[in-house]
Structure formats: structure tokens, C-alpha cells
Amino acid sequence: MNGLPPALAAGLAMLPDGTFAGKTVMVTGGGTGLGLAMGREFARLGGRIAIASRSEEHRAKGVAAIRAEGGIAEGIALDVRDADQVALAFDTVEERLGPVEVLINNAAGNFPVRAEKLSPNGWRAVVDIVLTGTFLCSKAFAARRVARGESGAILNILATYVDGGAPGHAHSAAAKAGVRNLTESLAIEWAPDGIRVNALAPGLFPHDDHAPAMRSRRPDGYEAEKTRIPAGRVGKTQELGWAATYLCSPYAAFVTGHMFVIDGGDRLNRSIRNPEFEPIRDQLPD
Ligand SMILES: CCC/C=C/C(=O)SCCNC(=O)CCNC(=O)[C@H](O)C(C)(C)COP(=O)([O-])OP(=O)([O-])OC[C@H]1O[C@@H](n2cnc3c(N)ncnc32)[C@H](O)[C@@H]1OP(=O)([O-])[O-]
Ligand SMILES: NC(=O)C1=CN([C@@H]2O[C@H](COP(=O)(O)OP(=O)(O)OC[C@H]3O[C@@H](n4cnc5c(N)ncnc54)[C@H](OP(=O)(O)O)[C@@H]3O)[C@@H](O)[C@H]2O)C=CC1
């Protein structure tokens, strides 16, 4: 489990080439980090990628990365918190790339903060991006798929702290837990329409795009994680692409309402000798 099989490390496909040929895949927050890694894998399998986010710079970077690999990508301006912008984004994508058949709700906001210091607006910003944004995009997607009488797939990006919470991240953990529950409600509601709704919960996947507030503050970066995570390493962003494309592919046609965890066993980590408890207020700045 510590490394990748040589064939996978060399970039060989898990799914057949062309699995997403002719399909439009919208990735919210797809210009950076994990969203971009997933978009690249969908594009490699033939998908047309719509990168929908707020920052022109992020969108342009993502579009350039996918096009440099021979893929098809367009950037679409979108703040997922705004229902009118969401509707316009879906219409614009349809005009430029065709109707969206796969939606990846990846956009998120997060910053570490002691809960008693989190302002109402800080709470609202994160919950609105993660929970309300996921609902608004899912609703716009499903309304269009149902009107066309066509199936589709939604993948919601969670975090492993949907179980157990996350001290210092109360806003994000609560919002992600809400998205997990939403995944299940919508999966049941839309199953008769052929719309599958699944979730992917990543463990620790460092990347160069991480927002400054979310970067590791440890002097050794992520070196210590090698002994903390049971698999002995952090995740590689390409691995999320493999999981995401499988869950949205016809090979997962009977999979819906599922949360797929990809974390090297981190979530289940229990030790015989547990570390001492260090209060969160001692771990975060004032
Ligand atoms: C752990 C591993 C798992 C990883 C999971 C991830 O999700 S990784 C993904 C991570 N990726 C990202 O997060 C990328 C996207 N993130 C973002 O765009 C911003 O971080 C955002 C979420 C604040 C939204 O931006 P926006 O322009 O909509 O909002 P705004 O700037 O107007 O602020 C709204 C309120 O929040 C307050 N506040 C802000 N920062 C801090 C802080 N550090 N401390 C305290 N408070 C903070 C700010 O003061 C304000 O409250 P006020 O003063 O009015 O009471
Ligand atoms: N990296 C990790 O270890 C982990 C990540 N995750 C999850 O993976 C996903 C991707 O995170 P990651 O790539 O690490 O982080 P990034 O900060 O790189 O990505 C977040 C993306 O969300 C977009 N975004 C933020 N707010 C909005 C908004 N209001 N409307 C539209 N787009 C928005 C940003 O684009 P823009 O600024 O252009 O709007 C950005 O591209 C998130 O859901 C995160 O919670 C979960 C567990 C671990």
C-alpha cells in the first residue's frame, strides 16, 4: 500500500480510454489542487471539462493545464453561493461544451480557527460555499437532467472528518457532514431519474495550490505524516482522479448514495499507545 503499482505510476488508465468521450464534466473549484487533478483525469478519459470558480487566475491556470495535455476545457465564472450565477454557469457551459452530464461539487472554503473566535460571517462563508453551494449546483444540474429525460452523476467532495468532527475546523466539518447527508437524500430522490449522487472523502492530499491558511505550519511539512498515517504516506492527487472517474463512470452504474473514503487508513487510525491530548487552543494562534 506504500507505493503505486508501476503500471499506475506510469499513468496507465484504470478505465478504458474514451470512457467520458463526448461528456461534459463540470468541476467547481476545478482550477486548483484536487479539483484540477480530478478534471485532468476526466479530460484524459475524453471528458470536456468546465472549470467553474470565482478567480479568473485559477480558472485560466486549470484550463491551460488540461489543454496542455491535449484535453478540452473552458473556464466559467461562478460563485457557488449565488443561485443566479449557478443557473447562468450551467447555461453557459451548455452553450460552449454541451449539457453537463457529470457534476463534481469540489469548491470549498476553510481556515483553521478556534470556534469561540469564529465570526458569524466566517461561519456563514464556509457553510454557504460547502453546503449551500453543493445544494444549488446539484439542484440546477438535476433540474436540467430531468427536463431532458437523461441520466447523470454527481460527486460531492467531503473530508474524512465528516465522522468525528474536526477541532479548529468546526465550520467546515459541520458543512461537510451536511453534504454527506444531502448526498444520501438526493441519491434516493433522484435514483428513479437515473441521477446518481455519491461522495468522495479524501484524507490528507497536500498540493502546491493550498490556500495560505491551510498550509502545514510544521517545519518538516508533511514528513511526520509518514509515520502517523497507517499507509505510511500522504495521498497523491492523481489517486483522487482515479476514484472520481470510477464513481462517475458507467462501471459504477449501480452505486449511489455511497461515501468512498481515500485516506490510507488515516480515519481508522488507533494506536495501542495514544498520544497525549493537546488542547486545540494551544495548537492554534489566538
Ligand atoms: C484539514 C484538511 C481538509 C481540508 C479541507 C479543505 O476544505 S481545503 C480547501 C481550502 N480552500 C479554501 O479555503 C479556498 C477558498 N477560501 C476562501 O475563499 C476564503 O478562505 C473564505 C472561505 C473565507 C471565503 O472568502 P470570502 O471572500 O467569501 O470571504 P471573506 O474574505 O469576506 O471572509 C468572510 C469571513 O471569514 C473570516 N475569515 C477569513 N479567513 C479567516 C481566518 N483565517 N481566520 C478567521 N476568520 C477568517 C473573515 O474575517 C470574514 O469574517 P468577518 O471579518 O466579516 O466577520
Ligand atoms: N487537500 C486536502 O488534503 C483535502 C481537501 N479536501 C476537499 O477537497 C476539495 C478541494 O480542496 P483543495 O483542492 O485542497 O483546495 P483548494 O483551495 O485548492 O480548492 C478550493 C477551490 O474552491 C474554489 N472555490 C472556493 N470558494 C468558491 C466559491 N464560492 N465559488 C466557486 N468556487 C469556489 C476555489 O477557486 P476560486 O478561488 O477560483 O473560487 C478553489 O479552486 C475541497 O472540497 C476540500 O474540502 C478534503 C480533504 C482533504
UniProtKB/TrEMBL annotation:
Keywords: Fatty acid biosynthesis, Fatty acid metabolism, Lipid biosynthesis, Lipid metabolism, NADP, Oxidoreductase, Peroxisome, Phosphoprotein. Pathway: Lipid metabolism. It comes from the Bacteria. Participates in chain elongation of fatty acids. Catalyzes the reduction of trans-2-enoyl-CoAs of varying chain lengths from 6:1 to 16:1, having maximum activity with 10:1 CoA. Has no 2,4-dienoyl-CoA reductase activity. Pfam families: adh_short_C2 (PF13561). Interacts with PEX5, probably required to target it into peroxisomes. It is found in: Peroxisome. Its main location: other. It is an enzyme of class 1 (oxidoreductase). The keyword Lipid metabolism applies. One of its GO terms (molecular function) is trans-2-enoyl-CoA reductase (NADPH) activity. One of its GO terms (biological process) is fatty acid biosynthetic process. Its EC number is 1.3.1.38. This is Peroxisomal trans-2-enoyl-CoA reductase. Belongs to the short-chain dehydrogenases/reductases (SDR) family. It catalyses: (2E)-hexenoyl-CoA + NADPH + H(+) = hexanoyl-CoA + NADP(+); (2E)-octenoyl-CoA + NADPH + H(+) = octanoyl-CoA + NADP(+); a (2E)-enoyl-CoA + NADPH + H(+) = a 2,3-saturated acyl-CoA + NADP(+); (2E)-tetradecenoyl-CoA + NADPH + H(+) = tetradecanoyl-CoA + NADP(+).
